[in-house]
Specification:
Elements: E1 27-32, H1 37-49, E2 53-59, H2 62-71, E3 78-82, H3 88-94, E4 100-103, H4 110-115, H5 117-138, E5 142-148, H6 157-175, E6 182-188, E7 191-192, H7 198-206, E8 210-213, E9 219-221, E10 223-224, H8 225-238, E11 244-247, E12 251-253, H9 254-261, E13 266-269, E14 281-283, H10 285-288, E15 291-293, E16 297-300, H11 310-315, E17 323-324, H12 334-345, H13 356-362
The structure holds NADP nicotinamide-adenine-dinucleotide phosphate.
Length: about 375
């Protein structure tokens, strides 16, 4: 039984674990939060690249599902389940016969999570545990949770809930026992152009001639939706269970983004919001001890007190290594930001292929190769 996502050899040592099937059996994927920014981009990509598949979208709002069904031309490979990740029974039903779950559903707005903490806990923490439990009960072989840099040294509730979700996923592998059921996470920074990102806000403010930024020194990681989708597809082929995958991506200064979007506008500094960091971190010094560098991405291995020997030592990070948006070695310039925003505004979510980040995370992640022998 093969479940390969890519033809390329995975970066990891050891035998490749395929999810899916080389026997041309149709691959079945469930995406929680499939009507969101990531979910729609992911579903579009899978349907475009793979004829033989069924994709189930799992989310609460019927209107978003209705709109998505219309936008996707009522593709028969696409199914919609109304459901809440807080509802474990419904999840088990939705996961019946599924090969891969991508868990994207979340409450993700920092101020809204601060103001509704119990709701954020129910969706992001309890919901994630329900996804793990349901995947074990339904025998789903691969489940990937989407996490965020805000889960690292969290200073707001959103980040804290995503940190808990990461821990639940890493630990979920224990529940699977000897069965080939695996849980892993991907952790990345701000997805530019996703719902609620700063780009639509700056675009609106540009019309008034005044852009507001909270702190001129602020930096963030930059990722496109396409890169996020590529990363998840790559992880589906490479995961062994318990890892957190972190892509190498460039940083940007938020003030440079403002200049790129509205070169002549006045920029007003309004002060940091509660729960907002000056810089984001994707990998702490403590995590770095369990992390391997695979060139295009880092892999945080589950902490089993592993010793640095053999292949691990070769890929180990230097002591004290921290992957932070302010000390990143790769930066977006005002000009490159302008180009990326122009593409986003044009309706595409892809970054120019000339950028290194695009190159590294898209390598070997075509869905067309799903289920094919390596
Ligand atoms: N966007 C970013 O910059 C970014 C960065 C790093 C990580 N992430 C992570 O990536 C994931 C996807 O983000 P996104 O930008 O695609 O978010 P989004 O556009 O806000 O979409 C969220 C999705 O989750 C669904 N949802 C919310 N609560 C739910 C619940 N209780 N049960 C079932 N479905 C629920 C929503 O649909 P309904 O409201 O209809 O249920 C929607 O489909 C999230 O886990 C987020 O934490 C995002």
């Amino acid at each position: 039984m093969r479940v390969g996502w890519t033809k390329a050899r995975p970066a990891h040592e050891g035998k490749r674990k395929d999810v899916g099937d080389g026997d041309r059996r149709s691959l079945k994927i469930l995406v929680t939060g499939g009507t969101g920014s990531f979910g729609q981009a992911f579903v579009r990509r899978v349907l475009a690249d793979r004829d033989q598949c069924t994709v189930r979208v799992y989310s609460r709002d019927e209107l978003k599902q209705y709109d998505m069904a219309q936008a996707f031309g009522h593709d028969p490979r696409l199914r919609f389940f109304i459901g809440d990740v807080r509802d474990r029974e419904r999840l088990v039903r939705a996961m019946h016969g599924i090969d891969l779950v991508v868990h994207a559903a979340a409450l993700k707005h920092v101020p809204i999570c601060e103001f509704n903490p119990a709701e954020a806990v129910k969706t992001n923490i309890q919901g994630s545990q329900n996804v793990v439990d349901a995947a074990v009960d339904a025998g789903v072989r691969r489940t990937i949770a989407l996490s965020t840099d805000k889960a690292v040294n969290p200073v707001n509730l959103y980040g804290a809930t995503k940190l808990c979700a990461e821990k639940l996923f890493v630990h979920g592998n224990v529940y699977a026992g000897a069965r080939d059921i695996r849980f892993s996470c991907v952790r990345y920074g701000n997805v530019m152009g996703s719902r609620g990102s700063v780009i639509p806000l700056f675009k609106k403010q540009a019309e008034t001639g005044i852009l507001t930024i909270t702190d001129r020194r602020m930096t963030r990681f930059w990722l496109s939706l396409e890169q996020a989708v590529n990363l998840v597809l790559q992880v589906a082929g490479e995961m062994r269970g318990g890892e957190i995958f972190v892509p190498k991506i460039p940083s940007m200064r938020v003030v440079d983004l403002a200049r790129a979007m509205a070169p002549t506008a006045q920029i007003d500094e309004v002060g940091r919001r509660p729960g907002e960091k000056l810089h984001e971190v994707l990998l702490t010094a403590e995590e770095a001890r369990n992390t391997q560098d695979y060139g295009s991405h880092y892999v945080i291995e589950p902490d089993h007190g592993r010793r640095r020997e053999g292949a691990f030592a070769e890929r180990a990070l230097p002591d004290g290594f921290v992957y932070s948006s302010d000390t990143n070695s790769e930066w977006m310039t005002v000009e490159s930001l302008r180009q990326h925003v122009a593409i986003l505004m044009g309706g595409a979510d892809a970054a120019p292929s000339s950028t290194r980040a695009h190159d590294v995370v898209s390598r070997g992640s075509r869905v067309a190769a799903l289920g094919q022998p390596s």
